[in-house]
Amino acid sequence: MTYSVDELDRIDYRILTELLADARASQIELAEKVGLSPTACARRIRQLEERGIIRGYRADLEPTALGLVTTVVVTITLEKQSEDYLAAFEAAIARCPDVVSCHLMSGSDDYHLQVIARDIADFERIHKQHLSRMPGVARIHSSFAMREVVRRAIPDTALRR
Fold first, then answer.
1. pLDDT tens string 101-132
2. Distance between CA atoms of 19 and 56, rounded to whole angstroms?
3. Where in the chain is the domain with CATH 1.10.10.10?
4. Taking CA 131 as the corner, what is the angle to CA 127 and CA 135, rounded to the nearest 5 degrees?
5. Are 67 and 17 within 8 A, CB to CB?
6. Most exposed among 64, 72, 74, 130, judged by the fewest C-beta atoms under 10 Å?
7. Class at the top of the CATH hierarchy for domain 5-50
8. CATH class as words, domain 63-144
9. Which of 1, 10, 7, 4 has the alpha carbon at shortest distance from 159?
10. Which of 4-13, 24-33, 94-103 has the lowest mean pLDDT?
11. Is the pLDDT of residue 146 over 90?
């Protein structure tokens, strides 16, 4: 879906800011915070969802509480940067459940991935079974994160107008 940031008004931004703070807030709570009736607030949220601005609602899980203590930043360089190679790699990486995020990059590396694993042995499994088998890969470089410093969704400062 296409949309223009100019189509969002002050109330839309307030709704988005409140949802970032607490996506589980009831329609009544949210409506009170943004100064709308619950019906009007629900209509606005539905429109934001239909326009693709709100993509969904998720639980923010703590990886270490689930035994996922190893974060790995992986850079991938492909043999070629043709559309066929990019499309094949992206289709394959989308099916890899251990990849938390993947970004097509400018510069010397083609992709940056974030992988979360239980430990180094688990990452070795991910590397052997998934990453090293990706189509068109010429080079894989892995860096292990020592600790997380900041993690956030879209910062609410980006929603201030």
1. 999 999 999 999 999 999 999 999 999 999 99
2. 11
3. 5-50
4. 150
5. no
6. 64
7. mainly alpha
8. alpha beta
9. 10
10. 4-13
11. yes
